[in-house]
């Protein structure tokens, strides 16, 4: 368009606000401007719930290594619509991927164990049934899982097979119309409190991993047990268990009919990893905010330590990585909502965001000094939790190799 006096002025220039908004230290890039009213409402609802129900107790739960009242918490999360929230139908909220990600961020800002409870319930156990199950399986399990009345778990990792699930030893053999399931799974979130387990096992229906099938196992089935794992120094406010299947007899309709081979469990993992991309930034944000608040108030040499150049350099670097990570999560969420998110892109997000989140926690600890190791502050709790998040659902090395294969076209896994 042509301005007065004949000079050229772009439409962008004409639309510029007369006054810039103030700088917001909690949202320095203005990422909230990318969110709609429903997105913000869901985020704020989950944040308020976590502040009321988790934050006043989480240090005690973590110190004791327990998550008391987990069944009640699951029902509350179900009432919020947070369980299986990105799934449609069967009592699920049908939220967008971005909205689910925002919920994961707020839950992990409270504690990784709480986000893990939601991720395993919705993105692994419920997602497996929703995507690969029969209509009868969906109707039987999903409504009660969405409400939190039934907790689910997901059995893939074994004592000797973590990054290489194709080598799993859990085995299911036919016995007439039934299946007999035998084996062990390890490091299973929600295992000891679950009413249903999605368990993956080898069968005789294919070779080289193609015979892997998923089974929906009611945990009260004879031969099934889930002893809880204790003495953890990470994810202490989380129920972690071993699953033991000792000739568990299952009917023919316990099989997930639309899943065969590793495609089934790996697609579930990809969905859960997406939540981690967001959730890890919640842990990082909580640690960064704790360090920033501490730096503003803690005085040394006659003034707040936040006024010293080295401290400001740490805060600036952490803010850059934190909000870059949130932008990355948001971008991946929009791609998922559009149906264009590839597993390699999820690996990109999980690799970057968890790695940077741990570094933010460690740097935050240095700003807090000795106070950083106290449970009066969230920093060390988040740092130790993220050590588990770094490993589960794909180690750093596995995601590096996923990206390496995508970039080069060469498979370095074997």
Automatic annotation (TrEMBL):
<dbReference type="Pfam" id="PF02771">
    <property type="entry name" value="Acyl-CoA_dh_N"/>
</dbReference>
<dbReference type="InterPro" id="IPR037069">
    <property type="entry name" value="AcylCoA_DH/ox_N_sf"/>
</dbReference>
<dbReference type="GO" id="GO:0046949">
    <property type="term" value="P:fatty-acyl-CoA biosynthetic process"/>
</dbReference>
<dbReference type="InterPro" id="IPR009075">
    <property type="entry name" value="AcylCo_DH/oxidase_C"/>
</dbReference>
<dbReference type="Pfam" id="PF02770">
    <property type="entry name" value="Acyl-CoA_dh_M"/>
</dbReference>
<dbReference type="InterPro" id="IPR006091">
    <property type="entry name" value="Acyl-CoA_Oxase/DH_mid-dom"/>
</dbReference>
<protein>
    <submittedName>
        <fullName>Acyl-CoA dehydrogenase</fullName>
    </submittedName>
</protein>
<keyword id="KW-0560">Oxidoreductase</keyword>
<dbReference type="GO" id="GO:0050660">
    <property type="term" value="F:flavin adenine dinucleotide binding"/>
</dbReference>
<feature type="domain" description="Acyl-CoA dehydrogenase/oxidase C-terminal">
    <location>
        <begin position="260"/>
        <end position="407"/>
    </location>
</feature>
<feature type="region of interest" description="Disordered">
    <location>
        <begin position="1"/>
        <end position="23"/>
    </location>
</feature>
<keyword id="KW-0285">Flavoprotein</keyword>
<dbReference type="InterPro" id="IPR009100">
    <property type="entry name" value="AcylCoA_DH/oxidase_NM_dom_sf"/>
</dbReference>
<dbReference type="GO" id="GO:0000062">
    <property type="term" value="F:fatty-acyl-CoA binding"/>
</dbReference>
<dbReference type="InterPro" id="IPR036250">
    <property type="entry name" value="AcylCo_DH-like_C"/>
</dbReference>
<keyword id="KW-0809">Transit peptide</keyword>
<dbReference type="InterPro" id="IPR046373">
    <property type="entry name" value="Acyl-CoA_Oxase/DH_mid-dom_sf"/>
</dbReference>
<dbReference type="InterPro" id="IPR052033">
    <property type="entry name" value="Glutaryl-CoA_DH_mitochondrial"/>
</dbReference>
<dbReference type="GO" id="GO:0004361">
    <property type="term" value="F:glutaryl-CoA dehydrogenase activity"/>
</dbReference>
<dbReference type="Pfam" id="PF00441">
    <property type="entry name" value="Acyl-CoA_dh_1"/>
</dbReference>
<feature type="domain" description="Acyl-CoA oxidase/dehydrogenase middle">
    <location>
        <begin position="153"/>
        <end position="248"/>
    </location>
</feature>
<feature type="domain" description="Acyl-CoA dehydrogenase/oxidase N-terminal">
    <location>
        <begin position="38"/>
        <end position="149"/>
    </location>
</feature>
<keyword id="KW-0274">FAD</keyword>
<comment type="similarity">
    <text>Belongs to the acyl-CoA dehydrogenase family.</text>
</comment>
<dbReference type="InterPro" id="IPR013786">
    <property type="entry name" value="AcylCoA_DH/ox_N"/>
</dbReference>
<dbReference type="GO" id="GO:0033539">
    <property type="term" value="P:fatty acid beta-oxidation using acyl-CoA dehydrogenase"/>
</dbReference>
